[in-house]
Amino acid sequence: MRTIAVTGGSGKLGRYVIEELRRQGYLAVSLDHRIAEGLPCKQTRVDMSDLGQVVGGLKGADAVIHLAAIPAPLGYPHHTIFANNVLGSFHVLEAAELLGIRRVVMGSSTSCYGFAWASKPFSPAYLPVDEAHPQLPQEGYGLSKTVGELTSDMFARRGALEIANLRFSLIAAPEEYGRMAEDARHPERFSKILWSYIDIRDAATACTAALTARLEGGSVSLNITGDEVLSERDTSALIAEHYPEVTDIRADLGGRAPLFSNALAKETLNWRPIYKWR
């Protein structure tokens, strides 16, 4: 495996993934709707809603990291976000199968659980939230990620693809930590995302680790989150104040332990986050 296509290579995470691929000796190719200045790889302009363009852009790749998407339910109507994200994911998987590309890494989100953008806020069924927790989105973005994972499962059942769906928490770049540190002093600001985040450098290494990990069953979904909450307060205090009704606690949540479990990602990918917001 040498040539890795990165859809959304011009985006926030895409740039870090391309740099990490290059650092590890891969040849990266970016597929995006725009050409980015200074991106250190071949770039192909691709409309992800056009299957022919996706097939043409992926030709010659050994694996795909699919990050092209509208990254939050902001700036577009919900139906536009849903249609864009779902169709783009389907086209990447269809193109990979047609071209004989076996490994696909899909960018998903912990928004699929529904807490982050819920118009009617609700609490987790248990803590920490692992990959078996029900997915209960109330808007088009979270739903698009859930449908993307179901689409991955469908393609994997046909036996031609191995797919890792990476459920990223809030992706934080180093230059954002100053502002985030101020927000961390106000627990209510991050309560709907369960104070979860992942450093963008750790998110990038999760993507590259997923290229070679053994994937049981052909399609897996993994929480990609950091090892601590994004708060100055201990986890137990956050739960007591913001989610006192959650009494089903399934792991040791001492100190600033995270409320999304990343244990399965660590085991499956042989990966762990190393950067912290502090």
Automatic annotation (TrEMBL):
Record key words, sorted: NAD, Oxidoreductase
Q: Which InterPro entries match?
A: Epimerase_deHydtase, NAD(P)-bd_dom_sf
Q: Which residues form the NAD-dependent epimerase/dehydratase domain?
A: 4-215
Among SUPFAM superfamilies, the record links this protein to:
NAD(P)-binding Rossmann-fold domains
Q: Which Pfam families match?
A: Epimerase
Give a yes or no for keyword Oxidoreductase in this entry.
yes
Family stated for the protein in its record:
Belongs to the NAD(P)-dependent epimerase/dehydratase family.
Instruction: Name the chain's protein.
Output: NAD(P)-dependent oxidoreductase
